[in-house]
Structures are given as structure tokens and as C-alpha cells.
Amino acid sequence: MKNFRFLSLLGIVLVCLFTITACGDDDSNDPPRPDVPTGIDPIILGTWETYAIVPNGGSEIAVNSHDESVYEYWHRFVFKADGSFDGYSVNYRGDEEIRGRIEQTFITKTFTFSASKKVLALLNLVEGYHDVKDFKAGKSVKTQDMVIELKTITDKELSYNVNYDGKQALFKMKKVDGNGGDSGNGGGNGNVSASMLLGSWGTTLIAGSATDIETGNVVESWNNDTPNVSDKKFMCFVFSENGNLEIFSHGDDDAEQQELVSMKGTWTLNGNMCHVVAGDMVLEVEIITLDENNLTFHYSLQKPFRPRHSEQTYFVTYDETIYLKRYIIS
Fold first, then answer.
1. What is the mean pLDDT of residues 77-85?
2. Considering only CA atoms, which of 259, 230, 265 is closest in space to residue 245?
3. Cα 103–Cα 109–Cα 110 angle in degrees, nearest 5
4. In whole angstroms, how far apart are CA 89 and each of 52, 105, 226, 276, 310?
5. Would the pTM count as exceeding 0.85?
6. pLDDT digit string (tens) for 278-319?
7. Using alpha carbons only, what angle is made at residue 157 by residues 151 and 163, rounded to the nearest 5 degrees?
8. How many Cα atoms within 13 Å fall on the side-chain side of residue 40?
């Protein structure tokens, strides 16, 4: 099973910061608890990312998802207006040979938050990379309720204390979007700005895995740096304002192909999910990171797959994260 340092850290935090109140499903008939707030104060809504930690008695340490020396401390929390919550961590240990990939490690359909009490409740929370994948696939997984007391919160920053390796540290997060984001020109309301997505993006890293659905074994994984257009795995995505999408690649043939070939399609945005149709592909793509110069997206689908250097075909969950930067295609 894949483990994240943050998940181990979370187990320590549970002692002093979180209260586990139940394990089960959404059909629990447990009576309401007085320490669980009702409703959602809108100040919490949006996307938050760790930007710093302050060890007890130490200096502030800057944190981001790109610096491998601080992978283990970074996470992203997404609080949605419909009352659901998503959380992300970085695969810092390199499990499945995919070090540095941002992966969803928390999900729940229901949270509540009181700004006056600084209390956040995550109800029926699913934690762990594999459990989240199973939950999203409709499988039964263990859940728990967590009640979290924040140290501070404003409309731009929040913080909370964590016991880490027997010492206390203050984790700081900043809001990286507005309350629900910007609809832009071709997307729906959500956490992603459609106008920022427009233009050309070239791949810098493609990381993924193919997991046999029957056995749960990873039959192949990859972590391909693609910094140059001449790299066979390089791809370029061009998002147009009218909803058209053009994907440039070197094709699927084993022979090296010098010129990029084009495949046309369409895209529509709803929140942080991008519906992509290109050729015979229909994908629901999750946009994980988007700023002026960087884009990261993730998708997962089930399909037949034959690993390299193998004659056997498996029916797999094909899971891939693609990292891109602004790129001018000639």
C-alpha cells in the first residue's frame, strides 16, 4: 500500500488535534455531537495550499509542491460550496516509481465549519490514496469523522498546530483561488479559471501507472521527463476560447517520428473538472494545479493494456498525471 509521510503525520495529529468519532458510511444514525458545527461559514470555501511550516522554536520553512526537500509537508485542501472536501498530498517516497506526483489522499461528501469557533468537521472522511480511488470507483471503504480546531483563519490564510516527531509545528496555508474561482471564457463556475487555461501547454513530466483490476497489482508504471519537443513522449495541448482543443504528439508508432501530428477535439470546464473529447477518447480530467505558467492535470480510466516487453493484455485502471508549462508551438 502506498504511504505518505503526511498520512503518518496525520495519525499523530489525531491524538491532539483531531477526534475520530465514527467509522462507517453516510447512513449513520448517530445523534449530532455538540462539538461539530452546523452549516458552513463561506470564508473556508476555495482551495488552500501549504506555504510554510514553523517548527517549535525554529524559523519558518517555505513549502511548495515542486521542491522535493519539502514534499512531505505540502498538501492542498479544497472546500466546495456543495459541502464536499478534497485533499491532496505529494507522493514523496516514490512508491510505484512516481515520486513528486500530486495525488488525492482525502475525500468526503460533507464538511461543516464555524469561523467564530475556528472548528472544522470532516464527516465520513476517506483517507489514503488507494482508499480514495476505491471510493471514487464505488467500492466500500472505511470512513471516519474528524473535528479540527484551527489556530487562525482569515479570507487569505489559515493555520493549525501539529505534533510532529514529538515536537509541535505550525502549518500555514494560503488561499490560492477566490471563493469558487472564475468562470472565464468556456468553463463553468468552479475552482479553476478557464481564461487562464487558454493557450498552449507543453509537457515536462508524464507520470502514471496501470493497475490490474482483478489482482490489484501494478503491471507497469512510468515517470517520463519530456523537456524537449524532440522527446518521443512530448505532447502539446492547445486550449482555444471557442472550446476547441488540439493535441500535438509524435504518434503511437514505435518508430521515431520527427514531426508532431495533430488530433482535434473539444473541452468544457466545470469546476476543476475538464471534459475532454478527442478522437475516440472521452475523458474527465481533474485540474490539480493551474497558474500563469504551470498546469497539472490528472485522469483515470479503465481499459485493456499490454505492458512493454509483455505479450499479455490486462484490464487495468490507467492512472496518469501530466505536468505542463507554457509552450509556443511552431
1. 90
2. 265
3. 120
4. 15, 6, 23, 25, 33
5. no
6. 888 889 998 888 888 889 898 988 899 998 888 899 999 998
7. 40
8. 18
